[in-house]
């Protein structure tokens, strides 16, 4: 270890102090710096233009610096910047964590503050620039630098030279080969090395536009393997390492590494045959060029025969001096005076610039004789020249494009003989011309970069009074410039820095401070990175992710999660690991029943015929899945249950034959390449048996599979594979197919999984002092946290993880506010979301928090997200070291009371349930989901709790589906009718416990609750006919004016009362919805979304016994008009028909055990839905030719998960006349009793429902013996 001390002042110029450093190995030697007082360095003027420069005498490995205030004073630094250089020019600012450039200094004059550099810096020169100092004192400093001697082997190449390395003896193959080097250059292109393998394969590492590209070449085919690094033409040393490990390569540039796979022909690459390509040679310096620990530069330097030197290679690094200047902010500008020759001769100005910004003012100057100005600027990444004169239209020229790519671009402005031209990038660019007179004089002032508010080229910086006339309409330039010339005379920027030439403000001279914020890219998951001078932006379009860095997935992690957002069956993108590296996959989610199935297809789910062949002994089948390997593994792992159908249809084709001999057939399944499995569907893994042996139903009891009986007839062995560790099926081998007469067919179904272990993983915290703890959260640069919670408490900490200074925490601060807080070293930051509704309502609420290098964000449910931008040049690494606490804190204060579910950190689910099982005060699981998800059950479906989740009971709904959302629709013809028969109470009394209580409420009606949808072109048309034995009825029809008409007759001796809707054109073939509510004599009718129509019937409040609900040609008891209408029937579509608690159409189509009789053609269809029927589940297969055996598999069928009901189902049969007579006589004796009862009519409210009595009005309800509905 060497300690360097600043000893002697070499030069003092305008605040710039250049010092010589000496080293001492054994003792500390302090020598005061003789400037501005004793005890340390203190410049005469304390401002930000001061610096202290140290020459260490040779390139040294610097490991740490220490600062102290000036002895016996109030002078010390509170913040400073370090810069390093090999030559005393082309400085490079040292940054911590790739972003923070400033070092905290001292708090007094005596304490020593030492900083160890994260990575040692190799340099000869060090420059310390004060940023802030004690406000009551001055700049003051004592400095120590710690480091080690550094030795290296260096070679310089001039663009036409190279080294060629050949092994003298053919080396044996090794597991790993490595080549490493350092390089520095001002050229942005050139080949660094070239290595050849077998059969004309080679690798080439090329510098192109400041990036390193690794190519693989075979013959004339060139393939780019990887691109790494950026701005590598900055004349600073860059480290490169190329490692070959078996079948892949690791390429490292500075601190970034990428891995690529390589062809097998390069696995036996014996050294570097041609490090440099002759046609694109490298121009610059190489250092420590090592091939498997062999120093090739040393070999070349000592004239080893293994290394051939081609061209002019020198063993030192001769660096050209190129002084650049950096325009850092809106206050940066450089002012240069004009030349005396401009008054009489041509004018030429050239410069090179590099920037990321699309816009910026490069140069402006005035035209005093014409009272005008010239502006050379970037706009939309093009170079433009504008000449402005009062009272005239501005003249403009433009050239070039894409000039904000960070590369150096050459600009030349020439004016000669009334001819003006601008050129961009010489031969590779473009030139624009114009004829105009631009008189310039020696008094002209050139401003480079401009100022944010004012630019006055003709008279220098403006005064406050003249500022209005000098306003700059252009964006200031942020970037670097170099090689400025005026009439081919290069501008000495060092003189500018020393205030000997021109003027400047807020410039960094003798360095280019450009940073590539997209290399390496912070944009994840394929997000495209773009940047400006001060920030970067990620375009997440088409990536499937969102956020400032495309970190968080926009997709759910399972079909279960989609279902609980109210989605129905269909194709969905599933991101099984959220923000993790696994890509989203398109999967079909089947949500038609209580279980939500994830269906993953492969390339052959069809029943496939295998013909016998004497030429081959085995048939091989391979299955490629629509999901990638890691997607499959993750989907299977997180599912509660997976299964895959495996069936083998055989005729004289055996599967296993015996338990002792080798099996004829097997299949391969499981993760990765899979393992051989010798059991068939439904049996235990490895048993070499089939499902029939488990069920003791094999055709031949001496065999364990039906096919092993070897019968000359078709049979099969089928079943479900349910052991997750053996799924999915990857290949199939069938062996007994070569004998004459052998025939077989097989089918491997899609992989089906249900249940999401992560989605329902929950824990209940019943004490404020209880918590769960997990290992430290690893989220240094990107952290996303998501979970669901429900509570009745108004506050509590959900999550906390601490470091020495850093921390991260999410808490419920009040019943309507969630706070996400953290500290990465820049001070605590908080992101708050305030909700408009209480969060302690014992319902599930979702929280999503994300923190990355750009911003922090917090989302709660669907409320607007809150964000907080990260500091531009702050610390970015979140450094934690304690345990992660869930539901509480390490101090056991402010604990959370309630449930936390589905907690995921960076896409990884924490197993709360397993940890809760062994933690006092915390219970695994959390019941009660209907309070949150019950609203998903539609159309009067009833939410039912399950251990993990809920289900919708659609028994009392006219709809079906996971959420009772699928309308049951059918197409009707004029001869179609449905009869729904109910037994009457006197018959039910013998078995009343077997039927639901809702039946009773449908017998004696104080009112009706009717809903249906229809579409037809028929007018007039009878939609609904409900009648009793006593000529009481309800009729719903479309009249001849295409209007909806409702007719009530509630008393046989009263007239019919008719209600007509104001809605017209109902026979237009479109779907219309009708809702009818009657309570006593109050009726409401609503058509589609129109306002409800409410009417009071004039008939007294009676309770008719409706028996028939019909839509067919039966016309008994109807007047002539209605009888004629009934004879026409109904042609069209009916959907979602419901009469109180009865859904007759649903019962007819789906519940075949219901008392339903159908007449005429009735076909279930999607006519009642705007979306087409789902046909995804249909799978067509190949046909078997020839005669079909009774047991032969039918492979020309179509499989479907949904049942299709069609054709003629049944015939309506009316009860016998004698039964009607007996019933009528019995009911007549009771009828007057009902009619004398007074029923107080309830006035309708604003709700959509009317209350109905749940029981018959009187025991006399038993007087009717049957009730029928006809549609």
TrEMBL record:
What membrane topology was assigned to this protein in its record?
Answer: Single-pass type I membrane protein
The protein's matches in Gene3D superfamilies, at most eight in alphabetical order, are given as: 2.60.120.1000, 2.60.120.200, Galactose-binding domain-like (2.60.120.260), Laminin (2.10.25.10)
Region annotated Disordered sits at 1237-1271
Q: Which residues form the Fibrinogen C-terminal domain?
A: 550-602
Provide the Laminin G domain boundaries.
153-317, 323-512, 761-926, 983-1167
Report the record's disulfide bonds: 899-926
- Per UniProt, residues of the F5/8 type C domain are 41-148
**Swiss-Prot/TrEMBL keywords:** Disulfide bond, EGF-like domain, Membrane, Repeat, Signal, Transmembrane, Transmembrane helix
Which SUPFAM superfamilies has this protein been placed in? Concanavalin A-like lectins/glucanases (SSF49899), EGF/Laminin (SSF57196), Fibrinogen C-terminal domain-like (SSF56496), Galactose-binding domain-like (SSF49785)
Pfam families from the xrefs? F5_F8_type_C, Laminin_G_2
Report the residue ranges that make up the EGF-like domain in this protein. Answer: 514-551, 927-965
Which InterPro entries does the record associate with it? ConA-like_dom_sf, EGF, FA58C, Fibrinogen-like_C, Fibrinogen_a/b/g_C_dom, Galactose-bd-like_sf, Laminin_G, Neurexin-related_CASP
Q: Localized where?
A: Membrane
To which species is this protein native? Amphilophus citrinellus (Midas cichlid)
The entry's family comment says: Belongs to the neurexin family.
One GO cellular component this record assigns the protein to is: membrane
Q: Does the keyword Cell membrane apply?
A: no
Q: What is this protein called?
A: Contactin associated protein like 3
Polar residues: compositionally biased ranges: 1255-1264
Transmembrane ranges, per UniProt, are 1203-1227
Q: State whether keyword Transmembrane applies.
A: yes
Q: Which PROSITE patterns does the record associate with it? A: EGF_3 (PS50026), FA58C_1 (PS01285), FA58C_2 (PS01286), FA58C_3 (PS50022), FIBRINOGEN_C_2 (PS51406), LAM_G_DOMAIN (PS50025)
Look up the signal peptide feature and give its range.
1-18
